[in-house]
Design a protein that fits this description.
The protein is mainly α. The chain is built from one helix and no strands.
């Protein structure tokens, strides 16, 4: 095999390697775009979770307050019932 043939073979191999690297590069760019999109979606979901957690805390505080008010009203009703019963006897 002559030096020219060997050189031509190397050039052809480099061309194949170059095309392979271009394809791999395109695939990696596509994967990177997917990762960037997933990261943006993750950040959006995290903000949504934080908002829902805050809303949940607010609702829990409201429930606690309403339970307290209900206990107060129950106590008032019990007092009124006791007063009515004492008036009836």
């Amino acid at each position: 095999m002559s030096a020219l043939n060997r050189l031509q073979e190397k050039i052809e191999q480099w061309k194949r390697d170059h095309e392979s690297l271009k394809a791999q590069n395109a695939d990696l760019k596509s994967q990177l775009a997917g990762v960037a999109g997933a990261q943006a979606e993750k950040e959006s979901l995290m903000l949504e979770v934080e908002a829902k957690a805050s809303q949940c805390n607010t609702l829990e505080n409201t429930v606690v307050e309403l339970k307290r008010e209900l206990e107060e009203k129950d106590a008032e009703i019990e007092k009124i019932i006791a007063q009515v019963e004492s008036l009836l006897t």
